[in-house]
Amino acid sequence: MTTKEYESYYVPAQSKWPIIGAIALFLIAVGAGNYVSNLNNPESSSGGWILLAGIALIIYMVFGWFNNVITESMSGKYSHQMDNSFRQGMSWFIFSEVMFFAAFFGALLYARTFSVPWLGGAGNNAATAAILWPEFTATWPLVKTPDGTETTAMGWYGLPLINTILLLTSSITAHFAHVSLEQEKRGLLKFWLGLTVLLGCIFLYCQGLEYAHGYAEEMRLYLDSGIYGNTFYMLTGFHGMHVTLGTIMLFVMLIRVFKGHFTPKNHFAFQAASWYWHFVDVVWVLLFVFVYII
Amino acid sequence: MTTDVINDQSEHDSHDGGHHDHKMTGLKRWLYTTNHKDIGSMYLWFSFIMFLTGGAMALVIRAELFQPGLQIVEPDFFNQMTTVHGLIMVFGAIMPAFTGLANWMLPMMVGAPDMALPRLNNWSFWILPFAFAILLSSFFMESGAPNFGWTFYAPLSTTYSNGSTAFFVFAVHIMGISSIMGAINIVVTIMNMRAPGMTYMKMPLFVWTFFITAYLLIAVMPVLAGTVTMVLTDTYFGTSFFDAAGGGDPVMFQHIFWFFGHPEVYIMILPAFGIVSTTIPAFSRKKLFGYSSMVYATASIAFLSFIVWAHHMFTTGMPLFGELFFMYCTMLIAVPTGVKVFNWAATMWRGSISFETPMLFSIAFVILFTIGGFSGLMLAMTPVDFQYHDTYFVVAHFHYVLVTGALFSIFAGAYYWLPKWTGYMYNDTLSKWHFWCSLVSVNLLFFPMHFLGLAGMPRRIPDYALQFADFNKWVSIGGFAFGLSQLIFLVLVIKCIKGGEKAPAKPWDGAEGLEWTVASPAPYHTFTTPPKID
């Protein structure tokens, strides 16, 4: 083997950003804990302010930390091996995100396959149903819960279908942007990447419209409308948060593209953002199938 | 394998830039550090402090249970003690101790200059003390600390929880972030930073076990995050994931929780396998017997850990097919585990064994962990579990695998590598005292719990029927003796850091691995140029 294969691996000097990030997470947790504990009386709690301070601090940390990384990368300190570390790190991070969604999909499938039918008397639960919830009939979407809360199911046509098309399209435009970057077509790169960000924003806007529609008087589909509303809002909500994060990531990439960053060979950050975007897209497809259609 | 002792100076010469060679001094060194050895030390100290904190809570429990009746604490406070004791020992003591060992040893064992993502490594550590600060601060809140058991079953943690649940949830979120980022770092370090020539099947078994453990962590810690999030929304935002009135199911909580919880059990024992698979060959002066079978056994256990979770809930009501499926899968785990125990015994067979303290802890591990494994096999049988469920038999079982298993292996590892960390040999007499006091007291502490459980004493209850009084007295005496024995270790470690007999680069003549090719104490930066592995 040649010595070229052992380019020295860059080990950064001491950094203040992690400890700032740790303090930020601490503030977020304390603030959110306080805020949630005093939901009935939000004025009496300073939790919201602590939470905001934590979020501000973590944004400051992300800027500072990434600034260091970008500077190091552009000054040629990183080796091919370092690039691999970043790629593998990002892949496993996305895998952990997949498992986070798996918990909520698990809850949805468990409720649909087991708990709702059992409450309606399926299996050997006829007596349970007759004694506890005689009025209850098991249906999905669960528009009437055992304790009598009524709601309406969100259809799959209309906004959700438009959103599916938007997000699928954005995945394709993200891919085109990547191809343009690799072929060094900067103009096309800016166009496709900008379009991806725009599609992400439109998706979020439509998601907001859909929520407004759900919370309106005619639908009465709330977060606390029983297991259907719970899984609907938790799954689409966490997905929406990930879309928001992904859009911000892509937007930052767009700014960096305009600043002239990235080369056809060296563009890990761009690729990480685009992987993340594809992951968010796949989650949406699963959501569309299991939450809306089936 | 190279045997040259690499000294500090030649390390610094090979740096490309001048900006990461000298450590800062004082507090900033520890707050800002990106060095895997510094971070490893912080993890180990943090875990030891948490170990003593959680241990103190265990002593409150044992003091209350010394005699029947309520004498020292209120039942609610007793529940807070059992809950926080469990949370601290799992997330604050055992797991960070393993992460600390991983940080210290993995880069040296694979011949890497540091962990793959050094700044992330610092973040993974420093968020932990904050998470436990939040958890422990709930003792000073009006509502008191969490009191629903470390497994936080719904509806105890939702409908019937006290006011500190939100803080518990966010503290667990941060612990989870810490574990996931730490695990990603371990995976990337092992996949990407191995010295040229170190193929996967040439890695020390220690590295293999941490590799597989890290995958388990990445797969299940997010599920724990999802579980606590559902607890949060059920408690504060009116959702009914775990409430039948809204179409959910409290049993669903147990499924999701144990989908995390059972792999978590192996997260706390696979690294232990790695440690004793390092120490037993060293002190038997033989190669590890059946290296590749050890790798495959570890991977099999990890795989099986995902399909056995419901054996924790045989009594909660599952279809018969479920009970049988989870029973057989659970028993299947005995096969790869048996392979491991066999291999350790076969490694010692006809070896030239010497009984230094790491070896004593390792042998105790093999025997006592096997006892814990056997009681696990008993618990795996569904009809039998109906009787054992939620009794002290379960408490005996998991303390055998976690205390005489995981913890003893950590002690074995700590004694084995202390000379490498500090540059000094530890005080041998003190270490022998620590071992023998721990060994006797831990068995006095946990063995009678088997009998208590078989006789029907329920766990997590501050009072008990009179016929359990004698055993409980002995258990409590064992508990206090075991707790005090650990102070010997504290004194020993402090003495070892301050000085003592100078340790050579390789103090154990049977030891193998790259970590013994560098000086003791290990230079601040090791392997900035990778060693060559044949």
Please give a structural write-up:
The complex is a heterodimer of chains A (294) and B (534). Among the domains of chain A are: 15-65; 153-294, Cytochrome c oxidase, subunit III, four-helix bundle (Four Helix Bundle (Hemerythrin (Met), subunit A)). Chain A contains 8 helices and no strands. Chain A has helices spanning 17-37, 47-74, 80-119, 126-132, 159-182, 186-215, 226-258, 268-293. Chain A starts with 16 loop residues before the first helix and ends with a helix. Mean pLDDT of chain A is 93; it is low at 1-5. Chain B has helices at 8-13, 26-32, 36-64, 75-110, 118-137, 165-192, 205-236, 250-267, 270-284, 291-304, 320-332, 334-348, 357-380, 382-388, 392-422, 428-454, 469-498. Chains A and B meet through helix 1, helix 3 and helix 7 of A and helix 2, helix 5, helix 6, helix 7 and helix 8 of B.
